[in-house]
Amino acid sequence: MMMKPFLLRSLLALCVGSAAWAQTFTPSATPDQPMPDIPSLMHEVEEHQRAAESIQKNYLYHEAAREERDDGKKSETREFDVFYLEGLPVHKLTRKNGKDLTPDEQRKESERIDKEIVKAKKRKAEAESKGKQTDRFGNDEVTVSRFLELGSFSNPRRIKLDGRETIAIDYAGDPKAKTRNRTEEVIHVLAGTIWVDEQDRTITRMEGQFANPFKLAGGLFLSIKKGTNFSVEMTKINNEVWLPARIEGHGTARVLLFVNFSGSALITYSDYRKFKATSTILPGYTTPKETSEPAPPDQSKPSDQPQPSASPR
User: Fold this and answer.
1) What is the CA radius of gyration of the chain?
2) Which domain holds residue 177?
């Protein structure tokens, strides 16, 4: 059974694979150049990420997600159109296992999106009325300052990633750190590496794993086994913003004691193009229509076949 809204997104939404595709790592041309102060660098990354989110709202793109189970059961795939409505990213399901949605499924999908937008707006309004800092969905936002309290960044080093000067930094959560919300509960049990583009001051790749088991409500609601791993890869679009290219994960999780999953999942993103609203797509909303500014040819859809990792540590 496909988990709703889809297994990998529900898990990666908490944490943000272990394989690389077409990314090349080479020695830095300036290995002896002094490293920037890491906390200051991460605060710069945070500011650039907020700026990138405002640009991302101008794009429409395609998402393809696939689950492969270790128990031999048939793999499942879903495809989505991703765009923004009222400042919120919307994943509109368009195909399941290679087949278009039926008219009834399309109607239900539109209703689901409408309800999610209403809930997110209400949640955000309630949080802001209490003076809380939230993300676009009204969930508690975790700042760089909190990351530094929940763990530590270390071992900065320079490499070239796809020909660009990049700073790789390790992160290790502190399992003893006091947390304030579910997202922080995930962060303090993670360990991994991030790659920051030195010129653009933005994260272009992440890899990590759960260094300790993760449980919500004592494991009754969600349980993720130690060693579950993931990776996120970004690509630069139209020479103006870094957007997701590929997310991959492998591990074991259980939700609500009823749904168990052990295997791998892969999400690929492609067909980035700018849009403008022109006609109705959902009740009360307008459909994004492509403008004359598609992503350049070299940002084509990546292969959905995992490739061996070549990531340096």
Assistant:
1) 20
2) 7-16+20-299
